[in-house]
Amino acid sequence: MLSERRLQVLRAIVQDYVGTEEPVGSKALTERHNLGVSPATVRNDMAALEDEGFIAQPHTSAGRIPTDKGYRLFVDKLAGVKPMTAPERRAIQNFLEGAVDLDDVVARTVRLLAQLTRQVAVVQYPSLTRSTVRHVELLSLAPARLMLVLITDTGRVEQRMVDCPAPFGETSLADLRARLNSRVAGRRFSDVPRLVEDLPEGFDVEDRGTVSTVLSTLLETLVEENEERLMIGGTANLTRFPHDFPLTIRPVLEALEEQVVLLKLLGEAGDSGMTVRIGHENAYEGLNSTSVVSVGYGSGGEAVAKLGVVGPTRMDYPGTMGAVRAVARYVGQILAES
User: How far apart are CA 73 and CA 301, in angstroms?
Assistant: First the structure.
């Protein structure tokens, strides 16, 4: 276990290196921070931190920089989440509340996160498997052709065409719409198959084929795998950190193009708790020089999707964690109210 003083020295090194991009020496630490000890004592503490792998010495400097292990300890023990100011919170709320639909919510969230953190923002669309049905609409397009519209509690809208085996009248259509919504509105997607399995039996024999076709289309919509969608923005922010990617930024850019990689990264976030993956903790090799800060968002304490940012390991962790948490909270509120 590190002594409290050495923890303070590590915190000071991380803060200075994040702020200046320059390796940190003992003289600078004693001048900038009230550590209450001499530069010689700080040098001894830095030597101990280096021996234990929390800081390292670049070849070109006498100063030290944090390692992945040092950042990990900083995040776990030393870094509080920086709260957003009242004006910042109002700006977030006003910006997101102007969204007109789910696509707009996700697009605004990506733009906002990238601007707030000056990192790459990644936002996953709400997952159908974690959603509930708000309403099912059925519209007649022709005597034997319908449109099924599924609206979820997160504002997601799915539309499907239904070719009926026989003409289906307006009276029967209104009856099916009413019975269907009475069973599934407000219910989890996973419950819907059980709730509608006997529905055709309540209709006249000549209408049961159409009712079964509509239900089949509805159930197919619930289980389709196109739900794994995400949006990314702010990739150009990475060019602001040439010192953090001294060899090449290409592996990072290639990783960001792989949607499967990003979905896996976001999937590591807990439903409500924040997850911070630092450097080599990221399983994908191309992201070994980055950190990923992610969290779930949703309403009622249950996450329906994840969002987060990707940036260099030399990032402002308290500020980034605070921004990610605040944006996730407001997105959840907006989806709940939509």
Answer: 28
**Do residues 215 and 199 make contact, with C-beta atoms less than 8 angstroms apart?**
yes
Vertex 142: Cα angle to 136 and 147 (nearest 5): 20
Residue 5: closest CA among 51, 37, 31: 37
pLDDT in tens, 18-43: 988 889 988 888 888 888 888 888 88
pTM exceeds 0.85, yes or no? no
C-alpha 251: how far from chain center: 21
Joined together, the tokens standing for residue 265 give 């990264």
- Please give the DSSP secondary-structure letter assigned to residue 81: P
- pLDDT tens digit sequence for 88-104: 889 898 888 888 788 89
Q: What is the pLDDT of residues 222-254, one digit of tens each?
A: 775 445 788 999 999 888 887 887 677 888 888
Q: Which residues of 228-245 are buried (b: 16+ CB within 10 A; e: fewer)?
A: eebbbbbbebbeebeebb
* 283 vs 278: CA distance, rounded Å: 10
Structure-token pair, residue 261 = 């990689």
Q: For Cα atoms 23, 24, 30, give the angle at the middle one, nearest 5 degrees.
A: 170
